[in-house]
Amino acid sequence: MSKGRSGGSYRSAISGRYVTASHGKASAHTTVRETAGASGTSGGHYRSAISGRYVTTAHGKASPHTTVKEG
């Protein structure tokens, strides 16, 4: 699944790869739904696959199976 498709795409927090929408919905605690955002972000940030919120870098590095590095 390509990142540019409308409606967003899902990325595995474990492998970092894009997965199908059905897999993303079935594995909600280990996938993050990504939508098209503004270009020019300020570097890499970590997002929780469970809550969808941004987390600290320390938490992101300590929880590699439930966070995704963006950017």
Describe what you observe in this structure.
Residues 21-47 are annotated as: Disordered. With 71 residues, the protein is α+β, with helices and mostly antiparallel strands. The protein has 2 domains: 8-37, no CATH class; 40-70, no CATH class. Helix content is 17%, strand content 28%. The strands form 2 sheets. Strands 2-1-3 form a 3-stranded antiparallel β-sheet. Strands 5-4-6 form a 3-stranded antiparallel β-sheet. A hairpin with a 5-residue loop joins strand 4 (45-48) and strand 5. The radius of gyration is 11 Å and the shape is globular. The relative contact order is 0.23.
Features:
71 residues, alpha+beta, 3-stranded antiparallel sheet, 6 strands, 17% helix, disordered N terminus
SSE blueprint and pairings:
Blueprint: E1 9-12, E2 18-19, H1 21-26, E3 31-34, E4 45-48, E5 54-55, H2 57-62, E6 67-70
Please outline what is shown here.
The protein has 71 residues and is an alpha+beta fold.
Radius of gyration: 11 Å
| Average predicted confidence as pLDDT | 80
**Beta fraction of the residues?**
25-35%
Strand order of the main beta sheet, please?
2-1-3
Number of domains: 2
Q: Based on helices, strands and strand pairing, what is the structural class?
A: alpha+beta
Discrete helix count? 2
Number of strands: 6
Low-confidence stretches: 1-6
Separation of termini?
18 Å
Describe the global form. globular
Helix content: 10-25%
